[in-house]
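User: Working on a comparison across species. This one is Amidohydrolase-related domain-containing protein from Brevibacillus brevis. Can you predict its structure so I can line it up against the others?
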Amino acid sequence: MSTILIQGAYILSMDSQIKEIKNGDILIENNIIKQVGKNSELTEDMEVLDGSGYIVMPGFVDTHRHVYQHLFNQAFTNWSLTDYFTRFLGDIGQRLRPQDIYVGSYIGYLEAIHSGVTTVLHWANSTNSYGHGLEILRADSEIGIRTIVAIADSVVAHDEDANFKNMLRLRETNSNPLTQIALGALSNDVERLKRSIKEAHELNVFATVHVGGVPGEAGLIAHLHEEGLPLDFINFAHCNQLSEKDYELFVQENMSVSITPEIEMLMGHGYPPFYQILSKGGRPSIGVDTTSVVGADMITQLRVALAYTHSVHNERVNIKGEEPSLGVFNAKSVLEMGTIDGARALRMEEEIGSLTPGKKADLIMIDTGGHQTAPLYDPYNYVLMNVNAGNITHVMSDGRWMKKDGRVVHDPVDIDLLNDSTRFMREELERYQGVRV
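Assistant: Here's the predicted structure for Amidohydrolase-related domain-containing protein from Brevibacillus brevis:
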């Protein structure tokens, strides 16, 4: 049995009962948090880490990331959403080889870990064959990060049963306890979406769908609800440009919502709907989306969420003269979105999302000793406004160190595979005028 003691740290537990502990200890046995408090007893077989000068908090839960697209690292930053649909989903994505999916997933997981992500919903919308899916599972197994892999392919118009069957086959193949296979459903055909939701629910498969990123989907959630569809085990991503009734239902029915603020503003999905949900008492979660457009850092997304939501609130209060309706929405609130609220959105709150005895040992350690980030007054403000991947020196997922002393512990991806996939991608991208390669 492995036993790890982190001693004397500033603990931000994200647990409403434990709260914050200055100079606190965290005891981990195998992959489980056993104690969170003070003055834990030392034994000879413990791995002891000096936590003084560190903030320790749960690892980030990214509820919407196209991990494999890290192979395109910022190549699409200046593309609109229409460009993405036509150039990538309608073209390049259909020609990706299984090797490319493996390479992109491998380096994408490493980049997520580097910035403190310990759980990620991988929206794998280029799983064009069973072989492509196997390469995602290979990367998952080699890296060991906690994942939900949503199986979907790049083609919008195809045999509606093919992707579902592919997902089920991969679900049967998967033997990794840290990977859950889910369904990536499409919203462009409402009748098909209904069938997908019903089928996924009957088989107890978690499902996720992009909604509201294009005009014309306002009222979709209300329609699905009126049809009596089981919406409690499906994650809705983006959710821009929906109706007030849709937003009310998200809160009323405790639905899973993931907002990816930076990319939604860059690519034209619509304004991130934080205010619409928060003002009704809801708690959305947050994702990066794709690092083919934005950076991989979750804290950036959280910071954007706080700034954007306050800007909307301030406009309503100061310019339109409306009464404040957000209550206290601050750095702590948005860090909760990136941890415990993310765990709730993935229906994993009993396992992860807070530093609570009995939960899995998913955590990060943030070095507060650098002069460029001193001094420390409010720890939540400090994390949100000062921290970047370089300050996150230790990352643990399921009781295993994924990053330690500032270095990701995994081997880099095979350089020959990386070079070959990069060459292939450059050739694909060069066919589009204006794409710099």
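For your comparison, note: The radius of gyration is 21 Å.

User: Helpful, thanks.
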